[in-house]
């Protein structure tokens, strides 16, 4: 498969059934799960007639399916510019990838409290983890990490590639430099980042990256863990079963080396094809997408500034330009505001704490906030519609209105 280079902006790049305009819904929830690209749907449809067992059958279709699966693995690795010796394990999603890495991490892990639960919790099950509250500046946070890494011999430092709450991140090159200086490896949680911008393992020195297809405009089903071979070759198999072994006796097992070691069971061919196609398209559209998102994010922020009482959540105001994710607080219950926006304005966004409970606890926002994600399918009309709808809902005051209307209450 070779995906053509698409401009990747506008709803026409998405599959029609999920096209925002046909649904008459302005979708700002791609940070949770993005609509599928047309190119992804086309390549999956093309692969279906060839679909057969991967790594198992001798038949021609099985051979083609195996080749498609291994080609997908290669292209996923190429998207993150894996080093020649790196391993690409195809997983279900980022959560699956971080859980896999946690089982093979040979020591304690360090993270900041802004991480998604998928990047925090797996290490609580294993060799232990420490969670730090970052300083209010990037430089202060790097100093904090430096001091903690000097104090304790961590095996791994987990950092977000882009926060799913604010779109922000620490400068990855500096994080890698200081972690490696103290003998720790670095995992970048790429779930959000890679839908917006690329990451080069070879160029940055990042040791591992975890990612999810359904954030990258492929449907749910496949993700990946990409990175250094040794822990993956030596660690406990993630999914024990067929394909993960070279030989099994009644009381003996020879485990395969990675990636097969961690991919027990029949591989998800169509998920891998979808994810790899999304990677191909995103790789060819990086600059167009980045420009599109910067413009929309700027338009959104300008619009939000015109509405009284909204506050955009930023962790490090001096940090570089965040990716296309904006979270803000509202002077009403955010869940109710999101429900009214959906029901009355067909504007879809997400309310809550976005699987980042420790961060919201620190921010003192127990009810959470509203999150808007802009991406490939978002237009400037969508942004204007959101801003207009938000202004209207907040000026009318959803609570009072729905209380008066009695059983029209939405929640
Ligand atoms: N990390 C981040 C930053 C995320 O935004 C998400 C998804 N919300 C995850 C990890 C987990 O991804 P998944 O649900 O696909 O495993």
UniProtKB/TrEMBL annotation:
Residues 399-411 have a biased composition (Basic and acidic residues). Keywords: Lyase, Pyridoxal phosphate. GO terms for molecular function: cysteine desulfurase activity; lyase activity. It catalyses: (sulfur carrier)-H + L-cysteine = (sulfur carrier)-SH + L-alanine. Its cofactor is pyridoxal 5'-phosphate. Residues 28-386 form the Aminotransferase class V domain. It comes from the Bacteria. Belongs to the class-V pyridoxal-phosphate-dependent aminotransferase family. Csd subfamily. This is Selenocysteine lyase/Cysteine desulfurase. It comes from Nocardioides lianchengensis.
């Amino acid at each position: 498969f070779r995906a053509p280079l698409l401009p990747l902006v506008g709803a026409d790049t998405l599959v029609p059934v999920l096209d925002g305009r046909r649904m008459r819904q302005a979708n700002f929830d791609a940070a949770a799960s993005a609509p599928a690209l047309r190119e992804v749907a086309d390549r999956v449809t093309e692969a279906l007639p060839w679909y057969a067992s991967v790594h198992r059958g001798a038949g021609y279709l099985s051979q083609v399916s195996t080749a498609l699966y291994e080609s997908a693995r290669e292209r996923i690795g190429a998207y993150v510019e894996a080093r020649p010796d790196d391993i690409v394990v195809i997983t279900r999603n980022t959560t699956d990838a971080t859980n896999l890495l946690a089982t093979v991490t040979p020591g304690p892990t360090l993270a900041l409290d802004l991480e998604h639960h998928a990047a925090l919790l797996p290490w609580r099950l294993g060799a232990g983890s420490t969670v730090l509250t970052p300083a209010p500046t990037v430089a202060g946070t790097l100093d904090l990490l430096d001091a903690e890494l000097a104090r304790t011999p961590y095996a791994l430092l987990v950092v977000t590639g882009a926060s799913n709450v604010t779109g922000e991140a620490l400068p990855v090159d500096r994080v890698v430099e200081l972690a490696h200086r103290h003998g720790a490896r670095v995992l970048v949680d790429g779930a959000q980042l890679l839908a917006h911008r690329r990451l080069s393992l070879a160029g940055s020195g990042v040791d591992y990256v975890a990612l999810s297809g359904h954030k990258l405009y492929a449907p749910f089903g496949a993700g990946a863990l990409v990175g250094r071979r040794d822990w993956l070759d030596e660690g406990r198999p993630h999914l024990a079963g067929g394909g993960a072994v070279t030989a099994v006796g009644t009381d003996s097992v020879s485990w395969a080396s990675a990636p097969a070691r961690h991919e027990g069971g029949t591989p998800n061919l169509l998920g891998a094809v979808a994810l790899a196609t999304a990677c191909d398209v995103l790789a060819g559209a990086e600059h167009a997408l980045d420009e599109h998102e910067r413009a929309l994010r700027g338009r959104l922020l300008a619009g939000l500034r015109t509405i009284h009482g909204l506050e955009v959540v930023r962790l490090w105001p001096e940090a570089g330009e965040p990716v296309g994710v904006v979270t803000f607080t509202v002077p009403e219950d955010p869940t109710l505001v999101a429900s009214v926006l959906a029901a009355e304005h067909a504007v879809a966004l997400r309310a809550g704490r976005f699987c980042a409970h420790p961060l919201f606890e620190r921010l003192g926002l127990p009810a959470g906030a509203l999150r808007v994600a802009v991406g490939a399918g978002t237009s400037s009309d969508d942004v204007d519609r959101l801003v207009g709808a938000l202004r209207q809902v907040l000026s009318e005051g959803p609570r009072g209105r729905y209380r008066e209307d009695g059983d029209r209450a939405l929640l």
